[in-house]
């Protein structure tokens, strides 16, 4: 099988290197990068073969327990790619970059976000946790600095003082979240990936990403749940 035997070229290595340095890359940027890497190394390029190009890299990453994964922005539905370490599925994969107290603040913030109704946690609620940490108390000013770093490193997203999980975090931590928050974590009924910000059917409890809700109900005159067919009572975004 020629596809299975595909070699990792310099173009593949260059693509992987850039992806790892960025942490997460939007699909349109990944397509541009694919073209650039192939052109630089003078190898065959086809605009519709990005997935095949990534599959070749993933086959070579398999023994290293790593993988390039595709995920969706919960805000606008755009596709993104991130390199995931499959050997470490817990928050401990962040341990080399952050101190124990910073990781505890991240875990507590994650709790607030996932256990919330809308997938967000206010900065006030997060900062109130700072002096209740088990590792040691953290001053609010220090907690503000740490939250800023989590946003810069693309683990959290912030808008008007409200925090949610960044697309990178959802792609990397999906299995961890699904197994550690079994009672509340759910997959989107449409795209079947983890949903943090979602609308939920009042009748049967299924959830859908907001972009998936928009897409699914676009052509329907009366919005009905794809699972139980009851009227979808949430406002369509």
TrEMBL record:
This is Non-structural maintenance of chromosomes element 1 homolog. It catalyses: S-ubiquitinyl-[E2 ubiquitin-conjugating enzyme]-L-cysteine + [acceptor protein]-L-lysine = [E2 ubiquitin-conjugating enzyme]-L-cysteine + N(6)-ubiquitinyl-[acceptor protein]-L-lysine. GO terms for cellular component: chromosome, telomeric region; nucleus; Smc5-Smc6 complex. Residues 188-229 form the RING-type domain. RING-type zinc finger-containing E3 ubiquitin ligase that assembles with melanoma antigen protein (MAGE) to catalyze the direct transfer of ubiquitin from E2 ubiquitin-conjugating enzyme to a specific substrate. Involved in maintenance of genome integrity, DNA damage response and DNA repair. Component of the Smc5-Smc6 complex. GO terms for molecular function: ubiquitin protein ligase activity; zinc ion binding. The keyword Glycoprotein does not apply. Keywords: Chromosome, DNA damage, DNA recombination, DNA repair, Metal-binding, Nucleus, Telomere, Transferase, Ubl conjugation pathway, Zinc, Zinc-finger. It is an enzyme of class 2 (transferase). PANTHER family: NON-SMC ELEMENT 1-RELATED, NON-STRUCTURAL MAINTENANCE OF CHROMOSOMES ELEMENT 1 HOMOLOG. Pfam families: SMC_Nse1, zf-RING-like. It comes from the Eukaryota. Its EC number is 2.3.2.27. It is found in: Chromosome, Telomere; Nucleus. GO terms for biological process: double-strand break repair via homologous recombination. Its main location: nucleus. Belongs to the NSE1 family.
């Amino acid at each position: 099988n020629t596809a299975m035997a595909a070699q990792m070229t310099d173009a593949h290595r260059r693509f992987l290197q850039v992806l790892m340095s960025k942490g997460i890359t939007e699909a349109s940027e990944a397509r541009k990068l694919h073209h650039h890497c192939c052109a630089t190394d003078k190898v065959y390029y086809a605009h519709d073969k990005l997935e095949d190009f990534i599959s070749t890299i993933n086959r070579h990453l398999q023994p290293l327990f790593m993988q390039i994964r595709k995920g969706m922005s919960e805000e606008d539905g755009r596709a993104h790619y991130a390199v995931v370490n499959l050997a470490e599925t817990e928050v401990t994969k962040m341990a080399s970059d952050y101190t124990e107290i910073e990781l505890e603040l991240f875990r507590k913030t994650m709790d607030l976000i996932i256990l919330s109704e809308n997938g967000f946690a206010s900065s006030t609620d997060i900062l109130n946790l700072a002096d209740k940490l088990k590792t040691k108390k953290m001053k609010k000013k220090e907690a503000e600095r740490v939250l800023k770093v989590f946003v810069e490193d693309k683990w959290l997203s912030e808008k008007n003082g409200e925090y949610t999980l960044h697309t990178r975090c959802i792609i990397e931590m999906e299995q961890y979240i699904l197994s550690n928050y079994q009672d509340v974590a759910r997959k989107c009924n449409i795209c079947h990936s983890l949903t943090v910000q979602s609308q939920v059917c009042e009748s049967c409890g299924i959830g859908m990403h907001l972009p998936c809700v928009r897409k699914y109900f676009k052509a329907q005159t009366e919005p009905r749940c794809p699972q139980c067919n009851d009227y979808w009572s949430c406002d369509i975004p």
